[in-house]
């Protein structure tokens, strides 16, 4: 697949993504990054709004899986608590974890979307694996490394300004 740094779509947060929108796009599998997409790096506790959103998505006919590069136990702990399957050590932007998820759910790449907050891992990894990508704004760039990464992503964020979805 091509080396592309632009997401298919953009949204302010995951709670802006509706099951109706995903169904209109033919999405059967929603892959979600964890850190700074669902919760900040500093907690495992989602906001009330994100909890509600997760329940609504789980009630739809769309399969949901967390696909995270994390090696920490907090991702599987979160997934057990909220009844979500997960793939950890995904190694994004390499497509290993994304492909494992597609195989696990037996969904073709063109029926899946990867949602994440980072261009260089989530968007690039999803695009290289042949899945559509949806970039959300990071919840909290709480340290200098995350802030610098965000600055490096700004040209691609600006180039994708017309790809924003609406609620």
Number of helices: 6
Give the full name of the CATH homologous superfamily: HAD superfamily/HAD-like
| Average of per-residue pLDDT values | 93
Biggest sheet strand order reads 1-6-5-2-3-4
| Helix fraction by DSSP (H/I, runs of at least 4) | 25-40%
Distance between the termini: 30 Å
User: What form results from the Cα inertia axes?
Assistant: globular
Instruction: Give the name of the CATH architecture.
Output: 3-Layer(aba) Sandwich
Q: Please report the total strand number as a whole number.
A: 6
User: How would a crystallographer describe the biggest sheet?
Assistant: 6 strands, parallel
Class per helix and strand makeup: alpha/beta
Within the CATH hierarchy, at the fold level, what is the topology? Answer: Rossmann fold
Number of domains: 1
Which value, in Å, is the CA radius of gyration?
Answer: 14 Å
Helix-strand pattern: EHEHEHEHEHEH
- At the first level of CATH, what is the class? Alpha Beta
Low-confidence stretches: none
Strand content: 5-15%
């Amino acid at each position: 697949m091509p080396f592309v740094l632009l997401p298919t779509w953009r949204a302010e947060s995951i709670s802006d993504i509706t099951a109706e929108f995903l169904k209109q796009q033919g999405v059967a599998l929603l892959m979600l990054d964890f850190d700074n997409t669902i919760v900040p790096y500093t907690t495992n506790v989602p906001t009330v709004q994100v909890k509600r959103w997760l329940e609504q998505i789980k009630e739809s006919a769309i399969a949901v899986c967390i696909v995270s590069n994390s090696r920490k136990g907090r991702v599987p702990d979160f997934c057990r608590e909220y009844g979500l399957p997960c793939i950890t050590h995904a190694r994004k932007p390499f497509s290993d974890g994304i492909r494992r998820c597609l195989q696990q759910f037996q969904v073709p790449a063109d029926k899946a979307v990867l949602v994440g907050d980072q261009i260089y891992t989530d968007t690039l990894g999803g695009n290289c694996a042949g899945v559509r990508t949806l970039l959300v704004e990071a919840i909290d760039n709480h340290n200098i490394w995350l802030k610098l990464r965000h600055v490096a992503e700004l040209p691609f964020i600006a180039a994708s300004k017309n790809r924003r979805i609406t609620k």
